[in-house]
Amino acid sequence: MAEKKQQTKPLTANELDDTLSKIYYAPGGFQGITALHSRLPKGAASKERVRRWLSSQKVGRYMQTQPPKEGAVSTLMTKHRVTVRRAQPGHHRSQAFVESFNRRLAERLFRNQAQQELDTGRDSREWVVELPTVEADMNDTVTRMTGLPPVEAVGVARVPLVAKKTPLPETLLPIGTLVYIATNEEDPKDVGRRRATDTWWTHKPYPILRRVSEPGQPVLDYTAFSKHGFTRSQLRTV
Question: Which InterPro entries does this entry report, sorted A to Z (predicted)?
């Protein structure tokens, strides 16, 4: 007598969640999905739930070039005069350019966002909107080290160092101006609310009391917050 084919019971809600958690997406397709079809609960709701779950897990495939293509890439780069510039590990001057740009970008990019988060107590994503404007302005601004904006410096074969010869003109704030001050001291109120690249600003503004200017040195503004002076980039007006 032939044995009856064993019927598979439909999955319960908990079993369906457990089965979905074991499915993963690979470049060849979803792995582990075969066992799900035979035990999927009846009804359009279950099928729609699985479809949405699979759609949320699916990621795009990676583009991959077939080796060996290094020679073709080098030839194409040479044809279009493309040069890849990189900082050398352990070379402090090379790293200083990158770190300085990243620091100034973070200070300008997250300045207004930090103020919004302090006022509302909620996370802000204003940097997404401000990034193109800030980046374009930084690329068009003359740097103190080279005397040229980055957008022009990248087109020059060799850029001389002119930082000690031509200091940049600074826009001075009037004495008595209320400013927030960038500081490295973490306020207890901000513990767990700040990113590593965020600038620490004082919670209340301070008036500029006096100013010290020396030849060849940046102008320092002094406030009641600290006995140390602060440069213009470390101050934010109210």
Answer: RNaseH-like_sf, RNaseH_sf
